[in-house]
């Protein structure tokens, strides 16, 4: 009965997504470890010469097995000094999200560009402020597979069974047209002292409102996704600090809010080793219902010099808790930041 309850819920979500292609964008619980998926203005914001990130999320595998909701993302960004202490950063990102037995998926790839303007501090100072403006331009497409679906016209009333070889009499296309997608964002951060920083940013995704419907020109355009995020690192001595953060995302009727904090312990050495542990809450609305607690998230992150590896688990607390037995999603993140080789000083950035 638990699996039946869950499958019925996902069938209704799938039908709504197919008809209007308005399923909300994929999200990561470790949003702080998926910078270019969060805000284009985070392009180039890191301590080093270049950065690459890989993220993976698997949700509902406890009940949907191989048909779980899976999201994989990857990005690369590079920063170059252009004048004074200002920088131009460029990069690219890729994301693929797949859900359910029909493998409803969306694929997006972008080119990224951002400008980092220093507002205060010198190139050799450990303090300062930056204002960053960033943009992403790319191409996307959504698809699903008819092979594992059946429709009412394929039900044989005489035999009382499904005949998948019969015509489904549906006018749906198995994929949308490839569409242009544009995102934009702003971000500010200030470095107050060692291990003491604060930041805030915002972004709007699908600025150009692309048509993403499986019904062709009869469908709706993609809802814009608005993002607001903020955070800080607050030290307690040379080795311990806390990193509170939050992100709010609104897309059409969907509302999603994640907030919490990591505790970070570092050996404070030249070849730094640090460990983070965190507790987060996620609240969201379900269809037309009011906002309610959706998941409680625990995470653990290991930093070793230029590498950062994170793992997190979402404990489901939504109305699907009976079907899932509280089992939600797990995520993995991997970040590599190449050491800086700048001679005139480096860009000092927050720990996210």
Protein model, in words:
The protein is mainly beta and 352 residues long. The protein has one domain (2-338): monomeric porin ompg (Porin, Beta Barrel). 9% of the residues lie in helices and 53% in strands. The chain is built from four helices and 16 strands. The chain has helices spanning 2-20, 35-38, 61-64, 321-324, and strands at 50-59, 69-83, 86-99, 104-120, 128-143, 155-156, 161-162, 179-193, 196-205, 225-236, 240-251, 254-266, 273-285, 291-304, 307-316, 327-338. The strands form two sheets. The protein has a 14-stranded antiparallel β-barrel with strand order 1-2-3-4-5-8-9-10-11-12-13-14-15-16. It has a two-stranded antiparallel sheet with strand order 6-7. It is globular and about 80 Å long. It starts with a helix and ends in a 14-residue tail after the last strand. The relative contact order is 0.17. Mean pLDDT is 83; it is low at 1-21.
